[in-house]
Write a structure and sequence with these properties.
heterodimer, A: alpha/beta, 8-stranded mixed β-sheet, 5-stranded antiparallel β-sheet, B: mainly alpha, 65% helix
C-alpha cells in the first residue's frame, strides 16, 4: 500500500501464508487500520468498500497531503501480487488528490486500474481489459464472502432477491460456467453468419425459410429487451412499495394496520408458495399414477378369468408336464402298470394328463400377474386417497388466501377512509405501485408465452432448412456447417445445464457437512435452486425454517464460502471435457470475524477457520485475539503482522501486544502531529 | 433437460465433428475471455469451416 488511508508512504509487502500453516494474523487496535487493509483489497480489485469503511472517498493519506506543496498532486495506490491458474498477476489501483492553495485537498474521482500478467515465459504483459479477468478469478458478487467484514454480516446472510440472483451468477462464474454461456452465445452468432451466407446464395425455398427465421429472431430480441425492462420495472415498483410501506409504518395513524398488513402479506406469500407446491404435487401424482384409474375393468376381467379356470379345475395345474413325460419315457405308470402299448387304456389315460399338465405355464403366469394386479388395485385406491389429500390442502390454501385478501381489502379501506391526508396519499401511491406490478407481470407472462412460441417456430424452421434438398455443393456445405453449429450450441447448452445442476447439489452437500462440523446446533443448512441459503430443523419429522442467530449466520456464511473453495478445487481435479474452475488456491480475508460470537462459537470457528480456504487472513484486535482464539489459531499461523497506530493525541494510552515473548506497539504517541499507521512483521 | 448424467456422457453422444468444434471453442473462450464478441464469432466460424470441409459425409 502507498499512502492508502492510515498508511503513510509505502508499507512493506504483506505476504499471506499458505500451505500447512495457512493462517496470517494481522493484529491492530480499533481504528488502527484493520478495515483499511480489508478495503485495500476490495478497492484494488473492484473499487468497492465494506459497509464499515467510513469516508470511502478519502483514500489518500492525510499526512501525505499535508506534507505536499500547494497545488501538488498526491498519489495513493494498492498493489496486489497473486497467481492463478499458473499465471502471475499484479493488480494496481491508484488515485490521487490535488492539494489546494488553502491547504485543503480535492480528490480526483477517477481511479486508475492496471493489471499485468506473466506466464511460463516470464515476460510481463499489460492486460487491456482487467475487469473481466478479475471477475473470472474472483467474482465481485462474491467479494463479501471472500473479504469478510465480521461486524457487518447481516447483508450477507439475508440478501434480497436481486442479491441472491447475483450470488448465483457469481458462484457459477467462479466455478467456470460462464465460459460455457459465452461459448454457446458465440457459436449461435457464428451460425447466424453461415445462415446469412446461405440466404444470399440459397434457392428460393431456403431463402424464404431463412427470411422468416430472421424476422422471428428480430422479434425474439425485441421481446427479450422488453422482458428485461419489465423485470427492472417490477423490481423498481417493489422497491417503491417497500419504501411506501416503511413510511406507513412510521405514521402513528397507520402503524398498527401496516404491521398487520406486513404479516398478512408474509402469510400470503407462504400460502401462494404452498398452493404452487400442491399444484406441482398434483401434476406429479397424475403423471405417475393416474393411468391406474383405467385399469379397474381389466383387473376385474383378469380375476373373473382366473376364477373360471379354477372352477373348471384347470388351475391349479396339480401335475407337472415333465413328470408325465418321464412316466411315458420309462413306459411305466406310478401304479406299476406298463405304458408300452400306446393303444392301451392305461397309456391313453396317462397321456390325457399331459393336456391338463400343460396349464402349469399358465399357472406360473397367473401367480405372477395376481401379484401385479394386487399392486395395481392398491394403487387405484391410494391414487384417490392422495388426490383427495392434495385437494383438501388446495381448498384450505384457497380459503386462507381469500381470507387474507379480504382482510387486506379491509385494511386498505380503513386506511383510505382514515381522513389522514398523508395516509391516504401514501395508500394511493401504494395502490398505483401494485396496479403497475400487476400490469407488468401480465405483460411479462404474455411476452414469455410469445417468446416460447417463437423459439418453437425457429426450431421447426431450422429442421426444414436442414431437410432442404440443395443442388449446389457450396450451399450443401453451408447447410452442414449450420447444422454442426446448431449441434455444437446444443451440446454446450446441455453441458452447462448438467454442470450447473451437479455443482449446486454438490455445493449444498458440502455446506451441510461444513456447517455440522463447525456449528454446535442441530440445524441443517440448505441451498435452494435459487442459491438462497436457509437454516432448517427437523421438528417432529417435519422440516421447519429456523431464524438464524448472528453466530449461526456467520457459520453459515463461512460454510458457504468454504464449500465454494472446496467445490472449485474438486471440479478442477475432475477430468471432464468442459472447462471447470481453476485449481488455484483461494484466500479468505476476515476483519473481526469473532466480534459478535459467544465463547463456544468463537472457539469452534477458530478451530476450523484454516479448513475454509487455502489462505486465511485474520484482522483482529487484542481483545478478539486473546483467549480461546489465540489458543486455537496459534499452531496454524504462518505469518503474523502488527499494525502500529501513531496517535496525534497528547495523552494517548499506549497499547501493546505480547507475541512470542516480545512486546509490539499497537497504539503509541505519534512523533509528530500526524496520525498514521505502520506495519511490522512479527 | 439433457438425459445424460455427466458432461462426459453427453459429450460422447455427439458426433466427432461436433466434439472437435466444442473442444476448440471452449479452449478459445477460456483463452480469450476478455475478447469482444465479433472477434470470437469469426474465430469460431473459422474453426467450423476448418472442421466441416466436405458438403457430404
Amino acid at each position: 500500500m502507498h499512502n492508502f488511508r492510515q498508511f503513510y508512504g509505502t508499507t512493506p509487502r504483506v505476504e499471506f501464508s499458505s500451505g500447512e500453516k495457512n493462517t496470517t494474523v494481522i493484529h491492530a487496535s480499533n481504528g488502527g487500520g484493520k478495515t483499511a487493509i480489508l478495503n485495500a483489497l476490495t478497492w484494488a480489485l473492484y473499487e468497492k468498500h465494506s459497509a464499515g469503511f467510513s469516508f470511502p472517498k478519502q483514500i489518500v493519506n492525510k499526512r501525505a497531503i499535508r506534507q505536499a506543496a500547494n497545488g501538488d498532486s498526491v498519489e495513493a495506490y494498492v498493489e496486489i501480487h497473486f497467481d492463478h491458474d499458473y499465471v502471475n498477476y499484479v493488480v494496481k489501483r491508484s488515485c490521487e488528490c490535488i492539494k489546494s492553495s488553502d491547504g485543503g485537498s480535492t480528490a480526483i474521482n477517477h481511479t486508475e486500474l492496471t493489471m499485468l500478467s506473466s506466464d511460463a515465459d516470464g515476460d510481463w504483459k499489460t492486460i487491456r481489459s482487467p475487469r473481466p479477468i478479475i471477475e473470472k478469478i474472483l467474482p465481485q458478487d462474491l467479494h463479501g464472502y471472500f473479504f469478510f467484514d465480521g461486524e457487518r454480516i447481516e447483508k450477507i446472510v439475508s440478501p434480497d432477491r436481486k442479491a441472491t440472483d447475483n450470488l448465483a451468477k457469481a458462484t457459477k462464474m467462479l466455478l467456470g460456467v460462464e465460459t460455457l454461456v459465452r461459448a454457446e452465445r458465440h457459436i449461435k452468432d457464428a451460425k447466424k453468419v453461415f445462415e446469412e451466407e446461405l440466404r444470399n446464395i440459397g434457392e428460393a425455398g431456403t431463402k424464404d425459410l431463412l427470411d422468416e427465421k430472421k424476422q422471428l429472431e428480430t422479434r425474439s430480441d425485441e421481446i427479450e429487451t422488453r422482458l428485461n425492462e419489465l423485470t427492472a420495472n417490477i423490481e423498481g415498483e417493489e422497491e417503491r412499495k417497500n419504501t411506501i410501506s416503511s413510511q406507513l409504518r412510521e405514521l402513528k395513524e397507520a402503524k398498527v394496520l401496516q404491521a398487520r398488513r406486513d404479516n398478512l402479506i408474509e402469510d400470503q406469500k407462504k400460502r401462494q408458495k404452498s398452493a404452487k407446491q400442491n399444484l406441482e404435487m398434483q401434476k406429479n401424482l397424475i403423471s405417475r399414477k393416474a393411468y391406474t384409474l383405467f385399469l379397474g375393468d381389466a383387473s376385474s376381467k383378469f380375476t373373473a378369468l382366473l376364477e373360471k379356470l379354477e372352477k373348471k379345475g384347470e388351475l391349479p395345474a396339480g401335475i407337472k408336464l415333465n413328470f408325465v413325460d418321464d412316466l411315458l419315457n420309462k413306459k411305466r405308470c406310478i401304479c406299476g402298470s406298463s405304458l408300452s402299448d400306446p393303444k392301451s387304456e392305461t397309456f391313453k389315460s396317462v397321456v390325457g394328463w399331459k393336456e391338463r399338465a400343460g396349464l402349469a405355464d399358465v399357472e406360473a403366469q397367473a401367480i405372477r400377474m395376481q401379484g401385479e394386479i394386487r399392486v395395481i388395485n392398491s394403487e387405484i385406491g391410494s391414487f384417490g386417497d392422495q388426490m383427495h389429500e392434495i385437494q383438501i390442502k388446495q381448498k384450505s390454501d384457497r380459503e386462507e388466501l381469500a381470507d387474507i385478501e379480504n382482510e387486506l381489502d379491509e385494511i386498505r379501506g380503513t386506511l383510505n377512509e382514515s381522513g389522514q391526508q398523508e395516509v391516504v396519499k401514501l395508500e394511493k401511491r401504494l395502490e398505483e405501485a401494485e396496479a403497475n406490478i400487476k400490469d407488468y407481470t401480465r405483460e411479462q407472462a404474455i411476452s414469455e408465452n410469445e417468446a416460447q412460441g417463437i423459439d418453437l417456430k425457429i426450431i421447426d424452421i431450422e429442421k426444414q432448412v436442414a431437410k432442404q434438398k440443395l443442388k449446389n455443393s457450396r450451399q450443401r456445405l453451408l447447410q452442414r456447417r449450420i447444422e454442426a453449429a446448431a449441434d455444437s450450441a446444443a451440446l454446450v447448452n446441455d453441458l452447462r445445464s448438467i454442470m450447473e445442476k451437479g455443482m449446486r447439489l454438490s455445493l449444498a452437500e458440502r455446506i451441510k457437512k461444513l456447517f455440522s462440523k463447525i456449528s454446535v446446533t442441530p440445524y441443517i443448512p440448505e441451498l435452494t435452486d435459487e442459491y438462497e441459503l436457509k437454516l432448517t430443523e427437523r421438528a417432529g419429522g417435519a422440516k421447519a425454517l429456523v431464524a438464524a442467530s448472528t453466530g449461526e449466520s456467520q457459520i453459515l456464511s463461512f460454510s458457504f464460502i468454504g464449500s465454494i473453495v472446496e467445490e472449485a478445487k474438486e471440479w478442477a481435479k475432475k477430468q471432464t471435457v468442459i472447462p471447470g474452475p481453476s485449481g488455484s488456491q483461494y484466500p479468505i480475508v476476515m476483519d473481526s470475524p469473532f466480534g459478535s460470537l459467544d465463547k463456544s462459537n468463537r472457539r469452534k470457528i477458530a478451530e476450523h477457520l484454516n479448513i475454509l480456504a487455502d489462505q486465511v487472513i485474520l484482522l483482529l484486535t487484542k481483545t478478539q485475539w486473546e483467549g480461546v482464539v489465540q489458543t486455537a489459531i496459534t499452531p496454524k499461523i504462518g505469518k503474523e503482522y502488527v499494525i502500529n497506530y501513531n496517535s496525534p493525541k497528547e495523552e494517548v494510552t499506549e497499547e501493546k501486544i505480547e507475541i512470542n515473548g516480545n512486546n509490539y506497539n499497537l497504539v503509541q504517541q505519534s512523533p509528530d502531529t500526524y496520525e498514521y499507521s505502520t506495519i511490522q512483521q512479527v | 433437460m439433457p438425459n445424460s448424467n455427466t458432461p462426459n456422457e453427453r459429450f460422447e453422444e455427439s458426433s466427432t465433428e461436433v466434439q472437435q468444434i466444442v473442444l476448440r471453442v471452449l479452449a478459445l473462450e477460456k483463452e480469450k475471455l476478455s475478447q469482444k464478441s465479433p472477434h470470437i464469432k469469426s474465430d469460431i466460424q473459422a474453426i467450423i469451416k476448418e472442421i466441416i470441409t466436405q458438403d457430404e459425409d
